[in-house]
Specification:
With 209 residues, the protein is of the alpha/beta class. The protein has one domain: Flavodoxin domain (Rossmann fold), CATH 3.40.50.360. Helices cover 41% and strands 14% of the residues. Helix 2 crosses helix 7. The structure holds flavin mononucleotide.
Length: 209
Amino acid sequence: MKTTLILLAILALVALCAIAGCRLSGKHSTEATVALTAKPSGRIAIVYYSQSQVQNTALVAKWIQKHVGGDLVPVEMVESYPEPYGETLRAVKKHHDAGTHPPIKPVPSLDGYDIVFLGSPIWYGTYAQPLYTFFDSTALEGKIVAPFCTHGGGGAGKFFDDVRKACPNAKVLDGLTIRGSNQIERRLGMGVTAHSSEDAVVEWLNRVL
Ligand SMILES: Cc1cc2nc3c(=O)[nH]c(=O)nc-3n(C[C@H](O)[C@H](O)[C@H](O)COP(=O)(O)O)c2cc1C
């Protein structure tokens, strides 16, 4: 009897550890529980810039691709901003204050695309610095533009207004705002990681497309 009780206690402990371990390692199901109601017609490009180690914006871009298809078009800097976070902030602030448009690697032509998803982390209340450079050479004229952003708690700021200003001859749809997560939050299953975030993406797609 005593042995059985000890065995049961050990089993219960193992089960608890497994649950806690899963939670801490962030291995949640990220499967959406909402279904896409209709696939949009037309060729789709998903243009995005994502900088941090956890790649919040890239994750949202991949969810969009998972549900509507299309081509992922990452915007990449010629020389990335330095890590860690404090140094990134300092380097970006310098560019932000000086209005610098940092060099980016060539982006493939978007001529053949009808719908362009455009994603960015929020930096100082608007889109990230490399997207200024992207807009220098890409007007997105005549396209349907679906903007999305991830942020660290401050919300989308001027992001959507600034996207509208940057592509005045595009049809800019209502955008998606998602709370990002840092590395610790990601481990705890907060921010862009839980299936609720993917659901938010699908609900947005259903609403705007
Ligand atoms: C230079 C810099 C500026 C930022 N500015 C803001 C901000 O103004 N408001 C906010 O909510 N989050 C801000 N953040 C947090 C990022 O928007 C957030 O972590 C985002 O999800 C990162 O996306 P990524 O993983 O795709 O790079 C900033 C981060 C950096 C590195």
